[in-house]
Write a structure and sequence with these properties.
By secondary structure, the protein is of the alpha+beta class. The protein has two domains: 3-180 and 348-430, Aminopeptidase (3-Layer(aba) Sandwich); 182-345, 2-Layer Sandwich (Alpha-Beta Plaits). 30% of the residues lie in helices and 27% in strands. The strands form five sheets. Strands 1, 2, 3, 6, 7, 9, 19, 20 and 21 form a nine-stranded mixed β-sheet that branches. A seven-stranded antiparallel β-sheet has the order 13-12-11-16-17-10-18. Strands 4-5-23 form a three-stranded antiparallel β-sheet. Helix 4 crosses helix 10. It is elongated and about 80 Å long. The mean pLDDT is 95. InterPro entries: Bact_exopeptidase_dim_dom, M20A_pepV-rel, Peptidase_M20, Peptidase_M20A. Keywords: Dipeptidase, Hydrolase, Metal-binding, Metalloprotease, Protease, Zinc. Its EC number is 3.5.1.18.
């Protein structure tokens, strides 16, 4: 029996196990003993491990921070890193967010992010086991519990467990993602003595702001209210949106304010509302591996004379944060701003000819017939939490991105394809 036929015989069981995980609304909750992400997430973890135990694999729960299902022997192990926690269900669903199979689609929060893909990987591992494949390394499926909240699940895992020799996370898109830009979350702060102006715009630094508002108080007691609407987009692709803050700053700049407020608007208009690659600030870095720097002004707030701007910068993988920050800090200082670095994610980069990337790409191409090359992205994935890991699926080229959206789904046919790709990838890495 070949691999594809083996997986086909496991399809109904895989669907049932995915549905059993989707029925658990595993949103992070109040921590309890041995349940650091709360009861619901822990229930999902225990259920996933029980599925692995039922299949005859070795399983282990690491104090509720993470768990793993393992097959094979050997000193080194290959990892498949995924997560069982989900974002809140939210509103506007027309299908059951706790799991509903309609035709070829499995609906539910976590269907594509990341319960469905991790079950596809588990059934790929079962097919490997059923086929009796001889491997020189162990294969370990690691189930995290706080990916959506940025929690310490993998940091805690690594306190007792070694790093994998290679592996992937099925928590992004196909084909292999060999380059993930570095990410800087910055706050620009300036005290402005001018009174009588209130500004608020944006809700998250990593999103293109879709709303912005200014209220200007005049000496005669009247007020001018300016409201702008934009089109939201992810901070890694600001060119796909339309910034309401840019539009608001444009309106305010046209009003020709004097003093410190007017000078500040001049600078913001010229330096922050003209481009999304940092050209006006002199930080427009670029490399062949990952492309041009990406900059998004996600928030702006002015209240009681204190202006705060939230800036999200994604810099190319062959540069360092210092290449950005030294120039940017000097520019901000010249214009009266204080720059605060709130968070940094280092770049992740493996050359396209790296053995890990090549083996994953071979498994993908052999299964799909798609000859496109590896991807470079501005976003950050779960791969950054562990060494020797890159993102690899599950979303196939041309599919709509429904993660975190109402009516999130993945098709059974895509899951079966994922399982075949993942089985070939795991065997190639563990041979």
């Amino acid at each position: 029996m070949d691999l594809k036929e083996t997986l086909s015989n496991l399809k109904e069981d895989m669907i049932n196990d995915i549905m059993s995980l989707l029925e658990i609304e595993s949103v992070a909750g109040e921590p309890e003993e041995l349940m650091p992400a709360g009861k619901a997430v822990n229930e999902a973890l225990e259920r996933a491990l029980e599925i692995g135990r039922r299949m005859g694999f070795q399983v282990r729960n690491l104090d509720g921070h993470a768990g793993y299902i393992e097959y094979g022997t050997g000193e080194d192990y290959v990892a498949v890193l995924g997560h069982l926690d989900i974002v809140p269900v939210g509103s506007d669903w027309t299908k059951d967010p706790h799991g509903e199979l309609i035709g070829d689609r499995i609906y539910g929060r976590g269907a594509i992010d990341d319960k469905g893909p991790m079950m596809a990987a588990l059934y790929a591992l079962k097919a490997i086991k059923d086929e009796g494949s001889v491997l020189s390394k162990r294969i370990r499926l690691i189930f995290g519990t706080s990916e959506e909240t940025g929690g310490p699940d993998i940091k805690n895992y690594l306190k007792t467990e070694s790093q994998p020799i290679s592996g992937f996370t099925p928590d992004a898109e196909f084909p292999a993602i060999n380059a993930e830009m570095g990410i800087l979350i910055l706050k620009l702060i300036k005290e402005i003595p001018d009174r009588g102006c209130f500004i608020t715009g944006g809700s998250a630094v990593n999103m293109v702001p879709d709303r912005a508002k200014a209220v200007i108080s005049h000496d005669d007691g009247t007020e001018t209210v300016i409201e702008e609407k934009g089109i939201s987009a992810h901070g890694s692709t600001p060119h796909k949106g339309e910034s309401a803050i840019w539009k608001l700053v444009g309106k305010l700049h046209e009003m020709k304010f004097s003093g410190a407020f007017g000078e500040t608007l001049d600078f913001i208009s010229a330096a922050l509302c003209r481009d999304t690659d940092g050209s006006a600030l002199g930080i427009d870095l670029e490399d062949e591996a990952s492309g041009r720097l990406v900059m998004n002004m996600g928030t702006m707030d002015l209240k009681d004379g204190k202006l705060e701007i939230g800036l999200n910068i994604r810099y190319p993988v062959t540069y360092t944060s210092e290449d950005v920050l030294v120039k940017l800090e000097e520019k901000m200082k010249q214009n009266g701003f204080r720059l605060v670095l709130e968070h940094e994610d280092k770049p992740l980069y493996y050359p396209v000819d790296h053995e890990l990337v090549e083996r994953l790409m071979e498994a993908y191409r052999e299964t799909t017939g798609d000859a496109r090359g590896p991807l470079a992205i501005g976003g950050g994935t779960y791969a950054k939490e562990m060494k020797n890991i890159v993102a690899f699926g599950p979303m196939l080229p041309g599919r709509e991105d429904v993660a975190h959206q109402a009516d999130e789904y993945i098709t059974v046919s895509d899951l079966m394809l994922c399982a075949e790709v993942y089985a070939k990838a795991m065997m190639a890495l563990a041979e």
